[in-house]
Specification:
With about 475 residues, the protein is α+β, with helices and mostly antiparallel strands. It has a domain of about 230 residues: Alpha-Beta Complex (2-enoyl-CoA Hydratase, Chain A, domain 1). It is about 25% helix and about 25% strand. Strands 2, 3, 4, 5, 6, 7 and 21 form a 7-stranded antiparallel β-sheet that branches. The chain has a 7-stranded mixed β-sheet with strand order 19-14-13-10-9-8-20, sandwiched between helices. Helix 7 runs parallel beside helix 8. The radius of gyration is 25 Å and the shape is globular.
């Protein structure tokens, strides 16, 4: 009995010594996670003791956590993405029409970005980058070439009579650009019925006025429904999401927009539409200013894909208590949590790392949430079911086509397009399955629904050294 007790005491002493012997940066990381992390009560008893501090942080993460990350400002990444460097996204897919081959599909091109200025378009098909042919064995090399930021040459093809025919070769170099997230607005009609369409690709505060102006322009159009295309939207600021929501739905400033649930240290926070809007730093900055942009609609149609994430998902989930919403496309990414930056506030600073751990679970006014596996659409439609991909706003795009069929019936005409066209049944020229989408990486890496630290929560400098 005495021998056993001695072993226990020695063991406890050793465990305590292990914690005390952690390097300062790892102790700081552990202390921070014990206070803020949503799964703080499930942190491992024996986190990784060797390797880097970044590996140590990763060893603390819950098995269901896909999005928490750590930054090292002293060692910034050397690679980014085709979107960051050249302003385009792409998918790699197998096609039933060309068995054994891999095809690259341009899924998005930022207006006025480097790729757009060279002539690259959504729907373009490519089979080689810098002379490297796309195949199952070169996927990693192709992806790496498109993340380095050097000059690239993309060889495109068209489909003619069931064959791939060589077309233009595009040489694209990195150039600075700023994405304006409102790509396109259109008005569709069928008799007296009208529906508005907006393609929106990021909740960026500095462009809040642009998206609200785009929505407000439909006021005089007399639309009954709005189609919000968020299929590649990676999310962004909560305040921007609140502004858009308040401009679409008949809500009051005191109604609940978001409920955030933290661990036992943080508890629960309820934010009204006005409170979420007030956190923004750009005009319009309060509820009354936003309400001036409001439109009156019956139904909101949201187009989604597996890369729709964060605030884009929040719009869908948190407007459901206030407005009929029809989701069309594919299941979303599943970012149902938010975070804020955690950094060393001591003076002088002793640790350079910046933490972005998952802190809050997000719910709507009816306490509905928990969509970590993604929001499932009411109508599942795959945009890759018809190739080449159609331009955003094209009535033959499968997602938009479905929304117009439900909202307006079988005939819809765009009154803002240069060549109005009837909505007709599209003959599927080629089917395929996307194996990789670059926009998934961007949505996964985008800062999780941005929130500031609530003043009533807890101060970082209360964490023990």
């Amino acid at each position: 009995m005495l021998f056993t007790l001695a072993l226990i005491l020695i063991s406890c002493k050793k465990e305590k010594q292990v914690v005390q012997l952690l390097p300062e940066d790892r102790q700081w990381i552990l202390d921070s996670m014990q206070v803020y992390y949503y799964w703080a009560d499930q942190l491992p008893n024996y986190p990784l003791s060797n390797g880097s501090s970044i590996s140590f942080f990763k060893s603390l993460l819950h098995s269901s956590d896909r999005f928490s990350y750590i930054e090292d400002p002293e060692n910034l990444p050397s690679t980014y993405s085709s979107f960051a460097y050249y302003g385009f996204e792409y998918a790699l897919m197998e096609s039933t029409a060309f068995p054994g081959r891999l095809l690259g599909i341009i899924t998005l091109v930022v207006p006025n970005g480097p790729a757009a200025k060279r002539g690259l378009k959504r729907g373009d098909i490519f089979t080689a980058v810098n002379g490297v042919e796309l195949s199952n064995t070169t996927i990693d090399k192709i992806n790496q070439l498109l993340k380095l930021g050097g000059e690239i040459t993309i060889q495109t093809f068209s489909i003619e009579n069931g064959q791939l025919v060589s077309k233009a070769s595009y040489v694209i170099s990195y150039a600075y650009f700023r994405e304006q997230p409102v790509y396109l607005t259109k008005l569709f009609t069928n008799g007296n019925k009208k529906v508005g369409y907006v393609f929106y690709n990021g909740f960026y505060e500095e462009f809040d006025r642009n998206i609200l102006d785009s929505i407000s322009k439909f006021k005089n159009g007399g639309i009954s429904d709005l189609i919000l295309d968020l299929r590649y939207n990676p999310g962004g600021a909560v305040s921007s999401a609140a502004k858009i929501a308040a401009a679409i739905a008949p809500v009051s400033e005191t109604q609940t927009f978001i409920i955030s649930k933290a661990n036992k240290n943080g508890g629960q926070f309820i934010e009204t539409f006005a409170q979420s809007i007030n956190k923004g730093n750009t005009y319009p900055g309060n509820f009354s200013q936003v309400s001036a942009f409001r439109i009156n609609i019956h139904t909101l149609y949201v187009l989604t894909s597996g890369t729709t994430a964060s605030s884009a998902e929040l719009i869908i989930n948190n407007l459901r208590p206030y407005l009929p919403i029809v989701q069309i496309g594919n299941k979303t990414l599943g970012k149902d949590m938010s975070s804020f930056e955690i950094f060393d506030q001591r003076k002088p600073k002793k640790v350079a790392y910046i933490l972005h751990p998952l802190i809050f679970k997000l719910y709507n006014a009816n306490h509905q949430g928990d969509y970590s596996e993604g929001l499932r659409p009411d109508y599942e439609v795959d945009e890759f079911s018809v190739l080449p991909l159609k331009a955003f706003g094209d009535t033959n795009d499968p997602l938009l086509k479905k929304a117009l069929e439900i909202s307006l019936g079988t005939v819809a005409v765009s009154t803002l397009s240069k060549t109005s066209s009837a909505l007709i049944q599209t003959t599927e020229s080629m089917k395929g399955k996307a194996m990789f989408q670059s926009s998934v990486i961007r949505s996964g890496a985008m800062p999780i629904v941005i929130m500031e630290k609530p003043k009533s929560l807890y101060r970082f400098n209360q964490i023990k050294k």
